[in-house]
Design goal:
Elements lengths: L7 E5 L6 H9 L4 E3 L2 E3 L13 E3 L2 H9 L3 E7 L3 E6 L1 H9 L2 E5 L2 H10 L4 E6 L3 H11 L4 H15 L7 E4 L3 H16 L2 H14 L3
Helix pairs in contact: 1-7
């Protein structure tokens, strides 16, 4: 990945693992921005358009798919569609910021295929019981939906080896420090800093 391309940080994991909270921790770092996803689901009462999601009709979404406008997209639980527009990369480049994606496991694997230099962070709940408790506490899902989410979580956990880093979210303060450390460390990879290193080398006459 060249220095002119934004650093892409993927945060993914099972539903209820605490992805959103850890993404907020990364966004506390300077020079980071969130990729706003598009979705066909209706906004929740606490959500406003353009902050975490742009809410679109199914026809609008499928039109974006046909035009190749998504970095990744997927249908979740056979119902609503979610996708990350490619324009997010352009915005990050123009603003000289690192781009943070909060996406599901299916989407994360798509982005890693298209952007091999992206850094993928897998957020893991400490146990199945803990995950079930978190999902129930949200109060948004029926019993059938909870069962589907837990079954899907087990399947998604098997994808852990496709990620660069894993963070067990059993202590929010520690997990928050860990995702920030991963983001900061990723900025210092040689592949990203080579241009600056070569410029400094010139001052040594080499």
């Amino acid at each position: 990945m060249s220095q002119s391309e934004p650093l892409v940080l993927i945060v993914s994991g099972p539903s209820g693992s605490g992805k959103s909270t850890l993404v907020q921790k990364i966004l506390e770092l300077p020079d980071t921005m969130l990729a706003v996803s598009s979705t066909t689901r209706a906004p929740r009462s606490t959500e406003s358009a353009g902050k975490w999601y742009n809410f679109v009709s199914e026809a609008q979404f499928q039109g974006m798919v046909a035009r190749g406008e998504f970095l990744e997209y997927a249908q979740v639980f056979g119902k609503n569609w979610y996708g990350t527009p490619r324009t997010a990369l352009d915005e990050a480049l123009a603003n000289k910021k690192d781009l943070v994606l909060e996406i599901d496991v299916q989407g994360a694997l798509q982005v890693k295929q298209k952007l091999p230099g992206a850094i993928a962070i897998f957020v893991i709940p400490p146990s199945r019981d803990d995950l079930e408790r978190r999902i129930r506490e949200r109060g948004q899902d029926s019993e059938d939906e909870i069962r589907r989410r837990l079954n899907r979580a087990r399947h998604e956990m098997l994808s852990y080896s496709s990620y660069d880093f894993a963070v067990v979210n059993d202590d929010l303060e520690r997990a928050g420090r860990e995702v920030q450390a991963i983001a900061l460390g990723s900025r210092c990879r040689v592949a990203r800093t080579e241009g600056r290193i070569l410029e400094i080398l010139k001052s040594f006459g080499g």
